Amino acid sequence: MSQAIGNTALAYARVWHVVDARQRVLGRMATNIATTLMGKHKPIYDPAADCGDYVVVLNAKDVMVTGKKAEQKLYRHHTGHPGGLKAINFSNLQAKDPTESIRKAVSGMLPKNRLREVRMERLLIFEGAEHPYESNIIKQHGITNVTNATNTQ
Asked: Which UniProt keywords are listed (predicted)?
């Protein structure tokens, strides 16, 4: 006997979210993006199931970091050769490739398992405000100032 109640195909449907990174703090924004990519915001969330959504990040070149992280935060990688440890700080990485700092932050916040690369494929980052996915976007986060409609009586 099945334990599923109702039509779960709608719950597994992937929704497209857009996030404006302009003047947003990198770490706080990355945690919200990672949660959306994993699908933790859905009632059907299962750590072993891939039920997350698509996330489109705009204005990656305008992302902020707090304190002295722009000069002090280092991104390291090794070439595989002896003495091949390379390091680049945040400000130089932003000048070279603005999308890479967001990609590394979100990747570090996802679980280290087989689903990590699959989830990262659903993260689409753009330097500016233009992107080719306008027709897919359903939910916007940080694009416009959305005011809550409250009844004032």
From this structure: Ribonucleoprotein, Ribosomal protein
Amino acid in the structure at residue 81: H
Residue 153's identity, in one-letter code, is Q
- Please state the pTM of the whole predicted model: 0.84
How is residue 38 written in tokens? 């994993």
Which ranges of the chain would DSSP assign to H, the alpha helix? 9-12, 26-38, 69-72, 90-96, 98-109, 116-120
Helix or strand holding residue 19 (H, E): strand 16-20
List, in order of start, the domains of the chain with CATH numbers.
13-64+98-141 (3.90.1180.10)
Give the count of beta carbons closer than 10 Å to the beta carbon of residue 137. Answer: 15
**What pLDDT digit, counting tens, does each position of 21-79 carry?**
999 999 999 999 999 999 999 988 999 989 999 999 999 999 999 999 999 999 999 99
pLDDT digits (tens, 9 = 90+) for 114-124: 999 999 999 99
Whose structure tokens read 């590394």? 104
CA angle 20, 10, 146 (to 5 degrees): 30
